[in-house]
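Each record in this resource describes a single protein on a pair of labelled lines. An example record follows, reproduced without changes.
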Amino acid sequence: MAGRQFGLFPEPGTELGPEAGPELAKAAREAIGVLDLAAADVRTERAWSADGLACEEVSWDVGFGPRTHAYVLRPADAGDAVLPGVVALHCHAGMKWAGKEKIADPPYGPSPEVVRLREAIYGGLAWAGELARRGFTVLAHDVFTWGSRRFPLGDAQGDAYDEAAGLHEQVVAKHCTVLGTSYAGVVAGEDLAAAAYLRSRPDTGPVGCAGLSGGGMRAVMLGAFDAEVAAVASVAMISSYRDLLDEGYLARHTWMLYPPGLSRLCDLPDLAACAAPRPLLVWYGEHDEILPLTGMRRAHAMIERHYGHRHAPGGYTGIFGDAGHSFGRQAQERVFRWLARHLIMEEGTAWR
C-alpha cells in the first residue's frame, strides 16, 4: 500500500527513476541527515613498522563521543613519496568490539575473534595492509558505534560485547532519528571527515574508497556525498530495495541500510550511481546469502542505465563473482587492480 501510494520502486521498463547526480545526492544527504563533521585536533598516537609497511595510529575529534582512532598504512620503502590514497571502510559483520582491526593489523596483532572473521569473509587477510603494500596510502578508521567509537555496554568485551551491541543498534537508530539525523547519516558524516583528513595529508594524492557489506554501503554514501572521492568500490552490498523487500531479506541487514526517507527519493542503486561520471565498481556475489540475486541483477541494470544517461558508460564496472557475502582473495585482486588503474598521481603515473 505504501509503495503504491508513494510511487516507490516502479515496474522495470516504466521509467529510469530519479536522475542520479548532484541534485539527487544533495536531496539524499538532506533526507538522511548527514552530519557536517571534521577531523579536528589530529594526533599521532604511535608509529611502527611491520611486514613491509610503515604504520601510524592517528586519532581525531569529531565533536562528540570518544576520539576516533585510525591506522594509516604505507609501503615501508615509500619514504615521503606522494601515493594515491584509499579510505578502507570496515564492515559491520555483527562485530562492533573491533572496527578498523577487522581489515588492518594493530601492532599487537589481531584478536582471535578478528582472525575468525577474516577467515570467514576476507580470505584470511587484513586487506587494508595488502592494498597499502601495492603503493597506496590506506586509511582504516573506526566509525560511530565501532572500535574506539563504540558505546560502553557494561563490562562486556569481545563476542559478549558484539551480542549486546547487536541488540543496542535499534536503540542507537531510534535516537539518531529523533535527533534529526539517522544511523547512516552519522556514519556518513564521520566517513566524510575521514576522507577529508586523508586528502589533507602531504603524502597522499587522489583518494578513493572501498568496503565490504556495511563498508560497501559506506562507500556508496561517501561516493555520493563527496565529489572529491575519485573512485568508489562497493563489495557485496548493492541490491534493489524492491527485491530485498519482496524476497524477505530486509531483516538480515543493519539499520544503516535503511535511513528514514531515502526510499521516498530513490532506490539504493540510484544512490550508488550518484558517483557518476566518476569510476564506480560494484562486486556482486552470485551466491550471496543475504542479498537476492534478482536484486543484484536489477541494481546492475539500473546503474548501467544511469551511467549511460550521464554519458559515462565506461565509468561503471559491475562484476558478478562466484562468491558469497565476502571480499575474498579473488575479489580483492580485482578491486585492487581496478583502484590502481583509476587512482593515479597528478603527473599521470602511479607510484609503482
In short: Confidence is low (pLDDT under 50) at residues 346-352. Residues 184 and 256 are 5 Å apart (CA to CA). The beta strands are 40-50, 53-61, 68-75, 83-89, 137-141, 204-212, 232-235, 280-285, 316-321.
